[in-house]
Amino acid sequence: MNSEEKIRSAFANKDWQEIKVTDSWQIFKIMAEFVDGFEKLSKIGPCVSIFGSARTAETNPYYQIAVECGRLLTERGYGVITGGGPGIMEAGNKGAHMNGGKSVGLNIDLPFEQFHNKYIEPSRLLEFDYFFIRKVMFMKYSQGFIVLPGGMGTMDELFEALTLIQTGKIARFPIVLVGSAYWGGLVDWLKNTMLEKEHNIHAEDLNLFRLVDTAEEAAEHIFRFYDKYVLKPNF
């Protein structure tokens, strides 16, 4: 029985002592995911991550925007990283793949919904068990985030990046929210409630992201940022 099977068995039998023993062995699995991710992603070059819902249908306008984002980014030499799944993630990879660009997928093992899409280059598909390792890969190897409408996971990745930039834990990079109809209410809440009413952020924190409505605007914000700043590692 391997360490993962021991953990599952211990939880099933509520053998808490066994869980304490096997916790330390998880470190090696965690290390393996970090090493594999660092080895593969460090060789790819500048990339931009595209985020959004796995549930977005191909007929949805946001799907088409994500395809166009992938195409525009690869035209300028950027690779595209996504969470590897269907929906918006598939669309971003599709745009990169169809334009002959680098198409990367950081897939996560989930009991539902997630399976990697067909537009990821096999050598650039990574599989993760741990969300926190996957998020480190996004932060470390992305030179920008383009965030389309999504659910809890999309929000998690967005605010993780904003927090790390705000606190100076990673270098600043451009973050673009696409879809004012979707994100406008959140942006208004950040400004009116979080900032002006409760004073829980600074006014300049609202400049950490840009709200746009088209793929052209999203890509152009990325390009303008790096016309001004030199590309460099985020960590």
Mean pLDDT rating: 90
Under CATH at level 1, the class stands as Alpha Beta
| Low-pLDDT ranges | none
CA-based shape = globular
Which structural class should the secondary elements be placed in?
Answer: alpha/beta
Q: Report the major sheet.
A: 7 strands, parallel
Following the backbone from N to C, one meets helices and strands in this order, namely HHHEHEHEEHEHEHEH
* Terminal residue distance: 38 Å
Structure description:
- Its EC number is 3.2.2.n1.
- This protein is an alpha/beta fold and 235 residues long.
- The chain has one domain (15-228): Rossmann fold, CATH 3.40.50.
- The chain is built from nine helices and seven strands; from the N terminus they run αααβαβαββαβαβαβα.
- The protein has helices spanning 3-13, 16-23, 26-41, 61-75, 88-98, 131-141, 152-166, 180-197, 215-228, and strands spanning 47-51, 79-82, 103-108, 125-128, 145-147, 175-178, 210-212.
- A seven-stranded parallel sheet has the order 4-3-2-1-5-6-7, sandwiched between helices.
- Helix 4 links the parallel strand 1 and strand 2 (79-82).
- Helix 1 (3-13) runs antiparallel to helix 2 (16-23), helix 3 runs parallel beside helix 6 (131-141) and helix 4 (61-75) runs parallel beside helix 9.
- The longest helix is centred in the last third of the chain and has 18 residues, at 180-197.
